[in-house]
Amino acid sequence: MATFLYKLGRLAFRRRGVVALIWLALLAAVGAGAATASAPASDSLSIPGTEAQRAFDLLDQRFPGASADGATARVVFQAPKGESMTDPANKAAVERTVHDLKSGSKQVARVADPYLAKTLSKDGRTAYAQVSYTVTGFELSDASRDALQDAAKSSRQEGLTVEIGGDALQAVPETGNTEIIGVAVSAVVLVITFGALIAAGLPLLTALIGVGVGVSAITALSHALDLSSTTSTLATMIGLAVGIDYALFIVSRYRGELAEGREREEAAGRAVGTAGSAVVFAGLTVVIALVGLAVVNIPMLTKMGLAAAGTVVIAVLIALTLIPALLGFAGRRMLPRAARKPKRAGAEHAADTERPNGGTRWARFVLRRPVVVLLAGVIGLGVVAIPAASLQLGLPDDGSQPTHTTQRKAYDLLSDGFGPGFNGPLTVVVDGRHTRDGQSAKSATARVVKKVRALDDVAVVTPPTFNKAQDTALLNVVPKSKPSGTETEDLVHQIRSTATHIAADTGAKTLVTGTTAMNIDVSKKLNDALLPYLALVVGLAFLLLMVVFRSVLVPLKAALGFLLSVVAALGAVVAVFQWGWLSDVVDVEQTGPIMSMMPIFMVGVVFGLAMDYEVFLVTRMREAFVQGENPGQAVVTGFRHGARVVTAAAVIMISVFAGFIGSTDSMIKMIGFGLAIAVFFDAFVVRMALVPAVLALLGRSAWWLPRWLQKILPNVDVEGEGLRHLLAADGPEASSPREPVGV
Predict the structure, then answer these.
(1) Residue 126's Cα: distance from chain center in Å?
(2) Long-range contacts of 22-28 (CB under 8 A, 24+ apart)
(3) In the 8-state DSSP scheme, what is residue 591?
(4) Looking at the domain that runs over 72-166, which CATH code has it been given?
(5) According to CATH, what is the number of the domain 425-513?
(6) Taking CA atoms, which of 84, 93, 168, 517 is between 20 and 30 Å from 230?
(7) Fold agreement between 1-36+179-346 and 356-403+529-716
(8) What's residue 316's pLDDT?
(9) Backbone phi, psi, residue 466, to 5°
């Protein structure tokens, strides 16, 4: 591996013009594709294998158009206190609004007049008009959205309170200025780390190119692959973070090789051959974790994982090819101005020996007190993880929107006027096509209605609607409790249990669906998939790390440390987004259940990113140990060379993720916070404290590998031992003599 990458790095350095043109051409091609691409066909959530999804599929067959995925809007009206929506003036204002809604856009399919549809509350103060569109929320034109909002203005001018809910006003999430701040912080960290503007700018430039290629490709394919609206945002988040980090490690190693007096092409080859090997395996762990999301069998989550994995692959390829090419263009300007002056060979090494850096001092401190550091780290993370025991899962709806939005105001008006369960009605489908014992679809449906009405948490059961064949019925059940309440979840289970008994007697199948039931099924599916996903991802990564480190205990330590950091991060997410602690700091206006996909998505992403720091830091220790240093000194050597760079990489990744906390989308905000705090815990507590403490306690046994495993596992030579032997045998230093540092 190291030898191949060494040759690749030198080739890219020599053919830098061709390599740069290839990447620019690729960026232009996918950019053109993105500019001409259509919007995604839909942003719907499909959950194969769940009862809610089977019911949706049955509706498509038996009630064509009943489950159409066009955008909808609920225009909610409320009369002032002491007035009613049936008052002549108020009724006239609503009817004018309904007329404006019908004529305001060609994308409107139908508008339900609240007086004809009888969608008035019992107290008469609240009513709503349902607007259905022929296209999805993301295909809805700006003119249609403007017409929707303009239609509501006339009723507001008449003194009515008018708010709009539904997905018609849904837009692509915005991250605000915080994302830019995150990139700016990354730039400052790079300047401090390298002390040269060219060296600091190169990782940012290559990361932006990589993200540009990845996100443009996602945008170009979004319509064909039906990618969700958040896919490109998450790919940007992860691609930007790993792109900067991978470039940072290659550039740092290149500068180290230059400081030892090597010729520039040789330095680029060695940097890619050594640090590049770590980049490849670090990238593989991230890709394994993201692609592994497919085992959950939720198409939206699978596509998000694959898209993010694609940006990681691009980041790795850029680090191995474009970075050495740009190093060729940069010349000696990669070094600080003072370091470009000629120095005698070995001077910098001597200086490092005389003046231990921060990484060396920290490693020596941990080696002196490994038990204290280990206990402090484990107990600290354990305390932060305590809120995770109260984790409640759900999917966001208009009730989780910020309180100042019209969607949230419409949600509250409907809840006040029609009851908490009105915003999350359950759709019950009775399939009577295969009834037996003289039963008909109508008689079976009548039994279902009677049984469901008798349940405690049911507010309203609408009369059943039959399809043309009269063999399938559709009815709505409005709970008394709010959609995200545990009472509503219990009601879904009660209806399904009742349906099982009715099916045993009549042969008619009853299915429960709707947004609320779908959310319940999603949460259960994700919970059931978490342990198998962990076993698959951690198992594959464990094998990969055994190949990298040729050890059993080092990969085991890495996996256990990851579990500590991810549980602590989940605890922090629960404390902020569910309990409301420090909610003002991250601008959380509405607390509630944690997004159902959050735990498994965080496990996948954080595991991959955590292994980045494990690979980058521990490979330097392994390299020193293989070269003959004792285990303790190898730990010090690893920190002397890697602590500064790993710290900078972690700060950069944290700032990039934290930049997405300013998103208007609650899911993006939560993921940005969760990933930022998880990287903080993993990089600074687990990798920088617990790892050296555990290695100090294990000593030589940390690098133990059974002989039979040594024979089975391939030797990928991440530490570059084979490369050193090759260079010593072929004598490349003779053909490429060392240069003074200042040349």
Answers:
(1) 39
(2) 23/209, 23/213, 23/318, 23/321, 23/322, 26/213, 27/209, 27/212, 27/213, 27/216
(3) -
(4) 3.30.70.3400
(5) 3.30.70.1430
(6) 517
(7) yes
(8) 94
(9) -100, 150
In this structure, which amino acid lies at residue 277?
S
Strands 509-513 and 126-133: unpaired
With contact defined as beta carbons under 8 Å apart, do 610 and 685 qualify?
no
Residue 659: its pLDDT value, please? 81
Residue 242 has a pLDDT of: 86
* pLDDT for the residue 740: 36
Residues 6+ apart with CB under 8 A from 626: 719, 721
Please identify every stretch of the chain with a pLDDT value under 50, giving residue numbers as ranges.
345-353, 732-743
> Within 13 Å of residue 732, how many CA atoms lie on the same side as its CB?
16
Tell me which H or E stretch contains 475.
Answer: strand 472-479
Alpha-carbon span 446 to 483, nearest angstrom: 25
| 677 Rama sector, left if φ>0, alpha if ψ -120 to 50, beta otherwise | alpha
Strands 161-166, 72-78: pairing is antiparallel
> What single DSSP character describes residue 80?
P
712-733 tens-digit pLDDT: 888 776 655 666 656 665 554 4
Q: Rounded to 10 degrees, what is the CA torsion of 259, 264, 266, 268?
A: 90
Who's near 718: CB < 8 A, 6+ residues apart?
A: 1, 2, 277, 278, 281, 548, 549, 615, 619, 622
Q: Which residues contact 386 (CB under 8 A, 6 or more apart)?
A: 571
CB-CB contact of 226 with 368 (8 Å): no
Could you tell me which of 569, 580, 539 has the C-alpha nearest to residue 680?
569
Q: Which CATH architecture has domain 356-403+529-716?
A: Up-down Bundle (1.20)
List, for residues 666-722, the tens digit of each pLDDT value.
777 888 899 899 989 999 999 999 999 999 999 999 988 888 888 888 877 665 566
Contacts of 26 (CB under 8 A, 6+ apart): 213
Of 544, 568, 542, the closest CA to residue 556 belongs to 542
Q: What pLDDT shows up at residue 352?
A: 46
| pTM of full prediction above 0.85 | no
Q: How far apart are the first and last CA of the chain?
A: 31
Q: What is the DSSP string of 598-659?
A: HHHHHHHHHHHHHHHHHHHHHHHHHHHHHTT--HHHHHHHHHHHHHHHHHHHHHHHHHHHHG
What is the structure's pLDDT at 347? 47
Per-residue confidence (pLDDT) for residue 20, from 0 to 100: 94
CA distance 155 to 162: 7
Q: Which of 347, 308, 306, 277 is nearest to 615 (CA)?
A: 277
CATH of 1-36+179-346, one of 3.50.50.60, 1.10.287.90, 2.30.38.10, 1.20.1640.10: 1.20.1640.10
The residue ranges of every structural domain in the chain are 1-36+179-346, 72-166, 356-403+529-716, 425-513
